[in-house]
Write a structure and sequence with these properties.
The protein has 195 residues and is mainly alpha-helical. The chain contains 9 helices and no strands. Helix 7 packs across helix 8. The protein is elongated and about 65 Å long.
């Protein structure tokens, strides 16, 4: 493994242990077993290295999740697929807690970090499409339907992650989500009340 790869691994380790804003160049160099100068040589700056490490960590999680979900939800009806996928997702949260805390930390800084903001916006758009396809199974979706379904699942994902980070025992289960969405759909499809 070369210095560049060691630096990326060291930066990911620091992101998980210290978060984005508390990680220094010295922390990364120490974790990677390289010199401080290697950061500038391979990445140009500590921020560029941290950004690259964050992109890699999010991508690795997305790939891992996609494989697990695709295998676990095959052949089920929409309700069964919803519950199976959300159960799997919620079960992954403890192992990836450091990544979620780092993402929420960075979220609070996006106005000062245009490169991260652009990455996160791009990741959201890709995530919506991936989530829609995952939950649709073999059902073909037109672009508008995929966007709407992906947006709802993404909103649920961010909300579940936030609730789980603050209160894992009180966070919703997959069944809670399904039941809550059924209640909401029933209320939305009922008669409109006069204003």
């Amino acid at each position: 493994m070369g210095n560049r790869d060691r630096l990326l691994d060291g930066a990911k380790q620091c992101l998980y242990e210290k978060g984005y804003t508390r990680t220094t160049a010295r922390d990364i160099a120490t974790a990677a077993g390289t010199s401080l100068a290697a950061i500038g040589y391979h990445f140009g700056s500590t921020e560029a290295l941290l950004n690259e490490a964050l992109y890699a960590a999010v991508g690795e999680w997305g790939d891992e999740l996609g494989r697990a979900f695709a295998a676990g939800a095959r052949g089920q009806d929409p309700a069964g697929r919803f519950t199976a996928i959300w159960t799997e997702l919620i079960e992954t949260l403890p192992a990836h807690r450091p990544l979620w805390t780092t993402q929420f930390e960075v979220l609070g800084q996006v106005d000062r970090m245009p490169e991260i903001r652009e990455f996160m916006a791009r990741a959201q758009r890709q995530g919506r499409a991936a989530l829609a396809g995952l939950f649709a199974g073999d059902e073909p979706l037109d672009e508008r339907t995929a966007q709407l379904l992906g947006t709802v699942h993404q909103a649920l994902l961010a909300g579940v992650m936030a609730q789980w980070l603050m209160d894992p025992e009180g966070a919703p289960s997959a069944t809670d989500l399904a039941d809550g969405l059924r209640l909401l759909a029933d209320r939305l499809s009922g008669p409109a009340t006069p204003a």
